[in-house]
Amino acid sequence: MNAQEPALSLGVDFGDGAIVCGSMPQDGSGFFTHAFPGWSEELPDPGGSVPIHRVPSLVRYRDANYHDIGNEVVRGGNSDHPATARWIRSYLLEESGALIAAGDEKRVTFRDAACDLLGAILVKTVTGHQNIRSVVFSVPEDAPPWYRDWLSKIARTAGMTACHTIAECSAAAAGYGLAVETGQSFLLFSCDETALSLRIARNNGSLDSADMEVIGSARTDTGSVILDTWIAQEIVEKSHLAYHGRRGQSLIDAARACVPGVVQHLARGDEAVAGFPDPVSGRPITVRITADDIIRVFADHGLPAILDDVIRCARGEALARGYADSAPAAVLMTGRGSLLPAVQALARERFFGVPVLSDHPLDAIVRGACLFRSRSASSDHIRNNYALRYWDPAAREHRYRFLVHSGARFPSAGQVARITISAAYDGQARLGLSLFEIGSNGPGTGLALELVQDPSGGVRVAAPEKDADEGSRPRLVNGTIPTVLAADPPGVKGEPRFELTFTIDRERQLCLTARDLITGAIIRRDAPVYRLT
């Protein structure tokens, strides 16, 4: 490819088990996934004729300066080696302090491993495709606040000129071509390598809302790796070989190696043949396994009950947040485990009467990431209004100090707002900022939620008025990751304490610089507050 060809959007789905990179022209046609010879594996696409290429999320360190990536690790039989980093994204998002051996008594973190893996893939993409210079990452909704900026730094180091992110639920909906109306919900059913999860997402904005709101979620550790083990055990039992002790574990390991091929065949037909060598005698073993066998195996291990628990927990959380439990628009299936007809059948049984979309479990998220980039590329303006809410003691009501108005450009040419805040009472050591998003049509007639302090010092949440305008009423957006400023010494009621200035960076992130007016110290500098839409 060369620079004269039309620009392509690049989407990246950095999953627990594999990384999928995809591209399509800006008109939304001709989607394909990128192959990385030596690193990626090729899988048939159940929803089309073009194969899907995935890079297993594996990095095996030979020493501090040399490492194998993806399928190189699998082919070398080093997936479980102590010097191999696997389940990289899970450890990364958990901010684990675990270390991986990297030779010469050196150790690397999982963040180092993620940088090595993603950086190498993006560098190879930039090198091989001169017309790809921007990337869109799919991001789990519960990712820590530093995650998006960390991805952006990796992308820019690799040579990308722009980096954007889209929430996984939004990407899956776009990838499946699901139109979600305002106020409507859908379910994202995922069975990836490490977990089986269900997320209930709702569109609280306009039809082109970039990020859906997850109002209920639950997960269990019964991911596709565990399903693979159950299938491997079934294969060994059907081989009628001695199945105990060290020999039994060797048989399981040998059978597990052929399970991915079995899954691919069962995704397209009613039976598959598993072939592997006897680890003791070396003679070939061939076992026929059917779709009905898989259904029975999953039932014997209690997968239906496990799924029921996940659904109940996700719905319970959503109901506690005001979910009406009305019929969702669809159930979207993603993850390698969702390739199996037995898993799809369980989903259809549990959500009878609701469309279950399962033809793009491996690439729906990356498809959606590509589509998001083509929609947003032409816009460098903020869509909504953003304001800080404060209490006016004279009027005895909450008021709003607007920081960003709809239509503001990003990145900002300078400061978008400068304000001074004071302590609400003597001795206040922590001052918080409540950032609200208000639809572009202006403030509504009621608040999306209200934080009310009770006499015991706790905080309760009051529900919104039922007839309030859903799209335009203020919505607290930094409730889960509040912005708190520490005052040392503690503040005095009414005395100006912090001078705050706000800017918007190139990733639409509202950034804060805070100066302590008593000590003169800068306690925050360009600190991310919230990614604007």
UniProtKB/TrEMBL annotation:
InterPro entries in UniProt: ATPase_NBD
Name of the molecule in the record: Molecular chaperone
Gene3D superfamilies to which the protein is assigned, alphabetical: 3.30.420.40, Actin, Chain A, domain 4 (3.90.640.10)
Domain of life: Archaea
